[in-house]
Amino acid sequence: MTDPVPAAPSPQRVVGSYQTYPEAERAVDHLSDQRFPVERIAVVGRGLQMVEQVTGRLTIWSAGLRSAVSGAVLGALFGWLLGIFDLVNPLVGGLVLAMYGAIIGAVIGFLLGLATHSMTGGRRDFSSITGFQAQSYDLLVDVDVADEAAKLLAAMPSAVAAADRTARSDRSTASTVSPVPPESPGG
Question: pTM (2 decimals)?
């Protein structure tokens, strides 16, 4: 038996361009409120860049404490599961096992945190959060319903619609985008 080949995606056209994701989200919400078939819309981030926000200095002690918290949670979960399934009953209750698990997990986590941080040799002495950020967000709509979407967005009574018209006039080169079809299983 062979798997059915997915239909080729239909070409899409840019009907709006927004500086922030919430603006693009409001535009899609407006189209949804107008009963537009939103399953034919794609929000595409353009100009993606990875952003790593440094949140603080990471010392050997703070690495140990962070790992101790993770170990305590994991240990409490294991202890609670042992208690809930009565694997050590009638000797010890579930809450007592969870408490012991949290203590043992915190100690093991702290020691592992100290060891792993000291093995980095000071190469990464900071903590951070990594994410992606786009310079702009385009609303792509299937070509056969793009005119209807553009009309509905033009009638949108908000600052988002005005920002969209300005951004579209600046981006005259983005006209039609054809998504890349998925690869077939044979190669």
Answer: 0.53
